[in-house]
Amino acid sequence: MFVNRIEELNYLEKLHKKQDARFVIMYGRRRIGKTELLRQFSKNKKHLFFSSDLSSEQEQLKQFSEKIFQLTRESFLQTQPFSSWEALLRYIFDHLIPKIPLVIIDEFPYLCISNPALPSILQKIWDEKAKESNIFLILCGSYMSFMEKEILGSKSPLFGRRTGQVALNPLSFEDLKFFFPDYSEEDRMLAYTVLGGTPAYLQRFNDKKTIEQNVKEEILNKNGFLFSEPRFLLIEELHEPSTYFSILRAIAFGRTRLNEIVLETGISERHKVNKYLSVLRELHIVRREIPITEDKPHKSRKGIYLLNDPFFRFWFRYILPNMSYLEEGDFNYVWQEKIKPSLDSFTGFVFEDICLQRIKNLNRKNMLPFKASNIGRWWNNEEEIDIVAYDEKQSFIFGECKWRNKKVGLNELNELERKANNFFYAGQKYFILFSKSGFNEKLNNLSKQRKDILLFDQ
After folding, report:
1. What is d(CA 177, CA 157) in angstroms, rounded to the nearest whole number?
2. Residue 1: what pLDDT?
3. Is 394 helix (H, G, I), strand (E, B) or coil?
4. Residue of higher predicted confidence among 393 and 414
5. CA distance 150 to 117
6. CATH architecture of 368-457
7. Can you tell me the distance from the alpha carbon of 102 to that of 18, in angstroms, rounded to the nearest whole number?
8. 25 DSSP β-pair partners
9. Sign of CA dihedral 79, 80, 85, 90
10. Quick check: 321 and 249 in contact, CB under 8 A?
11. Which of 54, 163, 196, 392 shows a CA-CA span of 20 to 30 A to 126?
């Protein structure tokens, strides 16, 4: 199933119509849908699509030569594959591009592992030949830190050559309706809590089955596709997985401040934890959040660390700590005793993220009371507000997200107003409440009388 990615497809189509040399870098985490996006883009176009792997340089050159032979039927390639990347790339520019200008290399970092000089070789040939070519070259990769440092970074030989880049992010909660049309809104929320927005994970669930059935079959079952997925992905990226796993587990259990992570993991030296967190941030596994109103984000001491992906958060919260039960096949016990009792509260935090997505989407569509320049969370040592948005004119939106089996009423609005009035000296103030279970009659009636109150069910 191919869902959304309209913005990215439109960008690539716009570039495809041009006739000069174009060079795009695409990157994103594994399973995020990069290859499928490129296949959708190229399917009705003449193109060369090469997917690299971890085989030797000689084997990669042989496979790439075979791919070129399928397109050109050059007889010499049957008996004599290209012996170097320079020879192969020169052939592409001199002989292939005039007929087939679109060249896509998937998992480009694998080629660089077999020959670290490849970016320099490509840069040399690009500088020589690109000006007189109509090549559309797309390099794609899953190793986030490698793509950002070695390909996009200022010290990369390819720096300054690209036409643009596409950083592919997970799908939004709104996109889950395409995967699960038969699920209720609440079930889609639970599916997003468990899987996040990674297409390959979403495809594993079947909306003809309950959330419980899907979780048991695909995640808790040791033979399920998702049972060891985070472990496999992280072992590929990290040199000391056990230490990183301890840090990720601590964050998944709500230890989000640096000193809390230090205490939870037992890593005595604070600077070491900082180093590990920096690596996880480079890999886009962890993000650092600071209150939205902080003037100097990089210097703020109020930062907290969160797992970027809901599925990783779910896995480190429920799967890793219960691995001994699951290895024995006791997944009914894990669901009933470990997951089910706390799943609702666990969903509450993800619900905040979804509400933030909705506010940002409304802001893009100019559907908020004003155009916000900053949207995020806010907290200090005493209080926190789930959503704060504001503009240069000091107009503010304050929001709370309530995932519970009870209608939200005037008490919640009054509490939100109290926090806003105590900590913000703003101009115009607006109040937004999101609720899983709707709103009571008094609050609904008040929202009809006051234009500064906005209510959203789920």
Report:
1. 43
2. 60
3. coil
4. 414
5. 11
6. 3-Layer(aba) Sandwich (3.40)
7. 12
8. 139, 165
9. negative
10. yes
11. 54
Residue-level pLDDT at 412: 97
User: Got the DSSP string for 318-382?
Assistant: IIGGGHHHHHTT-HHHIIIIIIHHHHHHHHHHHHHHHHHHHHHHHHHTT-SSS--SEEEEEE-SS
For residues 333 and 72, which has the higher predicted lDDT (pLDDT)?
A: 333
- Residue 187's DSSP bridge partners are none
pLDDT of residue 143: 86
Write out the DSSP string of 159-193.
TTT-SEEEEPPPPPGGGHHHH-TTS-HHHHHHHHH
- Is residue 167 within 8 A of residue 8, CB to CB? The reply is no
**Residue 179 to residue 199: CA distance in whole angstroms:** 9
Pairing, β 304-307 against β 286-289: antiparallel
Residue 458: predicted pLDDT: 64
For the beta carbon of residue 3, count every other beta carbon within 10 angstroms: 17
Nearest to 104 by CA among 171, 6, 37, 199: 37
pLDDT digits (tens, 9 = 90+) for 265-306: 998 888 999 999 999 998 889 999 999 988 887 888 899 999
**Identity at 149, one-letter amino acid code:** K
The one-letter amino acid at 76: F
Selection from 458, 221, 222, 212 nearest residue 343 by Cα: 212
Cα gap 140→216, rounded to integer Å: 34
Q: What pLDDT score does 291 carry? A: 94
Q: Given pLDDT bands bounded at 50, 70 and 90, which one contains residue 88? A: very high
CA-wise closest residue to 248 among 310, 193, 313:
313
Chain position carrying tokens 């419980």: 212
What mean pLDDT comes out for the span 205-227?
Answer: 97
CA distance 23 to 420: 48
Average pLDDT, the chain: 93
Q: Is 1.20.1440.230 the CATH number for 6-167?
A: no
All residues at 6 or more sequence positions from 175 whose CB lies less than 8 Å from its CB, including other chains:
3, 4, 197
CATH level 3 topology of 174-346: Arc Repressor Mutant, subunit A (1.10.10)
- Cβ-defined contacts of 78-86 (< 8 Å, 24+): 85/61, 85/111, 85/115, 85/118, 85/121, 85/122, 86/121, 86/124, 86/125
Which residue carries 């599925």 as its tokens?
A: 311
Domain ranges for the chain, please list them: 6-167, 174-346, 368-457
Give the C-alpha distances (Å, rounded to integers) separating 358 from 14, 57, 354, 355, 399.
Answer: 28, 47, 6, 5, 12
Query: pTM value?
Result: 0.90
Q: Work out the average pLDDT over 298-324.
A: 94
Candidates 5, 118, 145, 129; CA nearest to 52 is 118
The CA distance from 182 to 206, in Å, is: 9
